[in-house]
Amino acid sequence: MYDILNKINSPADVKKLNAQELEILAADIREALFNRLTKIGGHFGPNFGIVETEIAMHYVFNSPKDKFVFDVSHQSYPHKMLTGRKLGYIDDACFKEDSGYTNPDESEHDLFNVGHTSTSVSLASGLVKARDLKGGQENVIALIGDGSLSGGEALEALDFAGSDIHSNFIVIVNDNQQSIAEVHGGLYQNLKALRESKGTAANNFFKAWGWDYIYEENGNDIQTMIKVLQRVKDIDHPIIVHINTQKGKGYKLAEENREAWHWCLPFERETGKSKFSFGESYTSITADYILNKAKQDKEFTVITPAMPMTAGLSQEMRAQLGAQYDDVGIAEEHAVAFASGIAKAGGKPLLVTNSTFIQRTYDQVSQDVCINNNPVTILLNFTSFDGLTDVTHLGIFGISAFSNIPNLVMLAPTSKEEYLNMLDWSVNQTAHPVMVLMPGNEPTSRPADRDYSKINTFKMEQAGEKVAVLALGDFYQRGEKLAAAIEKEFGFKPTLINPRFANGLDEAMLTDLEKNHQLIITLEDGILDGGFGQKIAAFYGLSAMKVKNYGLKREFYDRYNPEELLNKLGMTTEQIIADVKKIVK
Amino acid sequence: MYDILNKINSPADVKKLNAQELEILAADIREALFNRLTKIGGHFGPNFGIVETEIAMHYVFNSPKDKFVFDVSHQSYPHKMLTGRKLGYIDDACFKEDSGYTNPDESEHDLFNVGHTSTSVSLASGLVKARDLKGGQENVIALIGDGSLSGGEALEALDFAGSDIHSNFIVIVNDNQQSIAEVHGGLYQNLKALRESKGTAANNFFKAWGWDYIYEENGNDIQTMIKVLQRVKDIDHPIIVHINTQKGKGYKLAEENREAWHWCLPFERETGKSKFSFGESYTSITADYILNKAKQDKEFTVITPAMPMTAGLSQEMRAQLGAQYDDVGIAEEHAVAFASGIAKAGGKPLLVTNSTFIQRTYDQVSQDVCINNNPVTILLNFTSFDGLTDVTHLGIFGISAFSNIPNLVMLAPTSKEEYLNMLDWSVNQTAHPVMVLMPGNEPTSRPADRDYSKINTFKMEQAGEKVAVLALGDFYQRGEKLAAAIEKEFGFKPTLINPRFANGLDEAMLTDLEKNHQLIITLEDGILDGGFGQKIAAFYGLSAMKVKNYGLKREFYDRYNPEELLNKLGMTTEQIIADVKKIVK
């Protein structure tokens, strides 16, 4: 096993192999992918489909002198194995040494830490610019999947480079006819026409934008790809190399169900079955809500930018929703403005995506939605520190980034009932743009109000004295625990407040607390800077009230253990109790 | 004068006119445009070029049943005159009744409050979606200029609608061969080829993406445009109507210099001369810096997304910069990632845009630049409440939105020397991504440090007692005034601090202040929520120190008088002194 891969310590070793050995290397890489992915999961389809191309890239070009930029970089695992990092795939003890994305801290062969889509052409065109300013001669190669092409950043960059770069720049478009779910958009009709005509179709979008262009249908054949890349190596102008590959190649189940196998949890290789099973989650609750609401209300419509599973929507459910559902593809900006238009014309749009991806559309939320005060509901999944922990996918910036946009109501539910009631209230009301933070913990049950139209009214869940705990959203359960611990430790009952609104102040309640409280504790699931607690602290700036904010630091945390992080930040119940002892007399 | 325009109170009146009267109406509209623009300024070229098209739109379609969406909406003045708002153009006393953009508060004929580019196709496709869900039959028409097409949001929407909309949707592409400055990008080569071939060129980008398409070269001919629009009215699928028009048509100077006449200040009609003249400004200082630095350092390069004038760069200066300058067109996302690539490869990129437009690229600043910690310098103009006051162009959200991104150093200079030193330090260092806030006030002179590598070190400009004034960036001069007034009023010398870093805390200095101060006053030129002062308040949450933050509320202010706003917010020196009296014993 790994006969050839074992010999590869750098790209120079790839160049020594003969054709047969290269084929064995491809098989070894797939075995190594199986080893890692069956055990710890990761991006499956993108890596299985690109093995041959990345072998050819390292065979033909000279990385790190020649520079590779991988879009999203969720397809860079073969590249990693070929650049000194095979142990992260073949040795279980080394899995953690390798992130699931390119990472300059791991290797000089990785240029950027990337995890969001559609950035490669733009980043690479910057490398081209600097090379030309410095008089360098190296090749710059961007590898981008068809799904990533629909993102505005990629399109802006293709437009720019097609006319404004006049030197070496190679963009490999890896066309596997799939985004995360199906591809959506007119440009995919063009890719299809180009595939079917072997690159000769009329109205070639790339050529229209000034690019030179070649097509290769056998993107999974190493020798073919070597020839293709040798042909474009050292080219003196920008060129698109459009290649046809098979997503998930080498695993029948993945070839047949490309959406399910874009990314995987640990699974059994024989059956493809996940080693985990899931019960009710906020995601499944969301899907149930969507299906019921759509049946009852024909003006209700759902939008996801390429991530239907983030709303729990299977292919079957999407079919059931019919015209009441749009996957707009990777196009978050359009998704938000589209929702604003729907709301303006009396529809009831619900846009669902991840906290990390809504970042791509700050301006659309602010301008297209909030200035116009159109009643769009934006539901965010993976909002918690206790969710995605890759530095490029953190949900912990959502409150800080979006809660300070005027007119936007940001709701932080604390239980299943409150979540559903808030969602339903938001979808049905017409007065506000609303962002709902899907809790990151397990669903819990507690009665909740149905009406949230009195904006910024906090809910006092337990009236007490001396200390008031304001526990936001999915940190409410931590607040409950803390309140109980305070009562046990100090012998008085503290006040416990569920703020519900993540970006406003219940000034009447806060003022009232001054009567018989000396300390406010805020707990929030996100960074402190720009968040909820700092607003509370500022409110009490001239008061005798002490305020202590608990939350995350402004930092790009990467692949951390969530509970360890809280401990490090002094946020465990025990640590907070110790703090309180120093403050409360 | 205004013989025909005077009779127009709604689109119904346009439909009654014969061909000759329509021509007179066009002339009347241009006269009315001259009346307003010579006296109060505004968008010139876009409106003069679109007169005939908007007359034809109202002649053929039935607004507000049929729905018009204007991209940027800086070309909507003729539309406004035809929908009951002519007094805003012909009666000087009524100028203020009309904003320079579409505004639903003004008229039911305006669907959105818009001021940023590239949003119309997406917003309009939402109107289409809601119409179809509700079973409506109206036409939906988006009007977008060629310059706006390069923005990611527009491209995402064109991709979506070209395949996923299967009902009436008309997108008029107003091709006047100009963005704000020249157009940049491969798609403009395609528009040129389409113009030159009267719409028949090979590789039609719109057709490639699934759109039906027609071309009309006489976009400034009313009868032609009426025929074209009658042909597409009630069409059952999406179509691009590509029209050729002349930007600035009807004013020779504007026809000849399209960049200078995109937007104008009040001017003399005979000569075209502006009624204002400008001396040294932070913008002119910036242009001088750029030209000198570029000469000395061949790795220094400047990027503007379509707004060279925001960096003070005239056409001549840009030519002088040569390869050390890229106007990437309206493509802010690409601009930022491009800069990140340049920095990664050892170039020294300076990206210049307005505070309001950097909003379009939150994710790129966070992911492409800051996670990678690449030393990009982003310089923002119009960062002040005392700058652009249209609701869509406010600079007051910049600190709140961007200062909470990890790794980003945000610098707020307080004088000409400090501005230049910060800019130069930032461009030359390689440790941090940096955002520099160009001051919104007049340049003042004061000695300043050259080295800012000790991040988050505030500068104590005056050591005093009892009260410490932390006056950020271009509010420093207000801080000076306030400190003097405090000394005069109370007889003690307060401390005056120039924080310099807008998003960090000098914890040592802040702790030290506790020794002999009881009140901290923060002054900042932006909204308070998520900003500088709230971090200070949170820092002192457990201390006896009182903190009072002065800044703007989280609100979409619109066309306000800046000084009146400060007064309303209680931020004048006198008002703050009155506050201090209540606090300081």
Description:
- The structure is a homodimer of 585-residue chains.
- Chain A has 585 residues and is of the alpha/beta class.
- Chain A has three domains: 5-262, Rossmann fold; 282-437, 3-Layer(aba) Sandwich (Rossmann fold), CATH 3.40.50.970; 459-583, Rossmann fold.
- Chain A contains 23 helices and 18 strands.
- In chain A, the strands form four sheets. A six-stranded parallel beta sheet of chain A has the order 9-8-10-11-13-12, with helices on both faces. A five-stranded parallel beta sheet of chain A has the order 2-3-4-6-5, sandwiched between helices. Chain A has a five-stranded mixed beta sheet with strand order 14-16-15-17-18, with helices on both faces.
- In chain A, helix 6 packs parallel to helix 7 (152-164).
- Chain A is globular and about 80 Å long.
- Chain A starts with 10 loop residues before the first helix and ends with a helix.
CATH class of the largest domain in chain A: Alpha Beta
Shape estimate of chain A? globular
Q: Helix- and strand-based class of chain A? A: alpha/beta
Q: What is the CATH superfamily of the largest domain in chain A?
A: Thiamin diphosphate (ThDP)-binding fold, Pyr/PP domains
Per DSSP, the total helix count of chain A is: 23
Tell me the strand order in the biggest sheet of chain A. 9-8-10-11-13-12
CATH architecture of the largest domain in chain A: 3-Layer(aba) Sandwich
Quote the beta fraction of chain A: 15-25%
Spans of chain A with pLDDT under 50 lasting ≥5 residues? Answer: none
What does the oligomeric state look like here?
A: homodimer
Q: Give the radius of gyration of chain A.
A: 26 Å
| Beginning-to-end CA distance, first to last residue of chain A | 67 Å
Main interface pair?
A: A-B, 119 and 119 residues
How many beta-strand runs of chain A?
A: 18
